[in-house]
Amino acid sequence: MSPAAEILRREIAAQGPVSFARFMEVALYHPEHGYYQGGRDPFGRDGDFYTAHQLQPVFGILMQAFARSLHEQTGLPPDFTVVELGAGRGEMAPFFEPWRYTGVEVNRGEVPHGVTGLVYANEFFDALPVHVVMRRGEELRERHVGWSGDGFVWVDGGPVSSPVADYLARYGTPENDGDVAEVNLEALRHLRLLTERFRRGFLLAIDYGYTQRELIRFPAGTLMSYRRHQAMEDVLAEPGERDITSHVNFTALEQYARALGWRMVRLESLASLLLRAGEPDQFGTALEGGDLSRRLQLKTLLYGMGETFRALLLEKKGEE
């Protein structure tokens, strides 16, 4: 049994079943034994999954070009800063060198106060702890995690809390008996904190996700676990040893951000964003020298990840 699993087992034995948000928090972010805290490198060929950050230098060059266009749109302020949420092992930092740069993890570091610039969040929101809800007839009940025999199991909890119910009413509710949905209150909390600290500029969120109208496509929810490049539906196995993700509700991000004073610039595929970033020089800088590996990276970005990931761009205007 992994150390994170033992922590959760003891907590359940002492207090009863826990929310899935608590389970996911310990599994991913326990200070010593969480998946992202244990010193393992989860990325790349020898890890559990790839992100666009591993397709370098092409992805970094295109993101740098995109950030430069946003810098120009804000009037070229000299204090333009790029804040990266979920910086991981820092692959993007060299490409954001033209500006001030700050990397912030889920539970380490803070967004500086009074920032003008770009908040960049690539596969950040999908890894935040979520509550899981199931419709039981006319009632919405939270799914908890218990312990039975020698493993973790799903158990029905009580009626959902007011914050969870409000989220579902605003951004999409499971419609049919047995349907499941995730509620990402942590994403909203991060947006609130970000808004308090950010003066003006842009937020770019790149992730798997859906809009409220598309929720019907996921009657079993969107939770997935990843280990050695294999996707698995059993998200309760081996906590601390696997990644856990849920798709991002882009309607929730956009509408909540709008209520906080942001405006949506666009929601599009990652491929569309990358095409716009590479258009000014026809991908000349990204493909410099005609290197075959770079061409393969670009192909993967445009026709692989680019079609499955979405990019939400928000803008916050402040006083000049």
Structure description:
The protein is an alpha/beta fold. It folds into two domains: 1-39 and 131-183 and 215-244, no CATH class; 56-128 and 184-208 and 247-315, Rossmann fold (3-Layer(aba) Sandwich). 31% of the residues lie in helices and 27% in strands. The protein contains eight helices and 16 strands. The chain has helices at residues 3-15, 20-29, 58-73, 162-171, 185-197, 250-259, 270-278, 292-308, and strands at 18-19, 81-85, 100-104, 115-122, 131-136, 139-148, 151-159, 180-183, 198-207, 209-210, 224-227, 230-232, 243-245, 248-249, 263-269, 310-316. The strands form four sheets. A six-stranded mixed beta sheet has the order 3-2-4-9-16-15, sandwiched between helices. Strands 1, 5, 6, 7 and 8 form a five-stranded antiparallel beta sheet that branches. A hairpin with a 2-residue loop joins strand 11 (224-227) and strand 12 (230-232). Helix 3 (58-73) packs across helix 7 (270-278), helix 5 (185-197) packs parallel to helix 6 (250-259) and helix 7 (270-278) crosses helix 8 (292-308). 42% of the residues are buried.
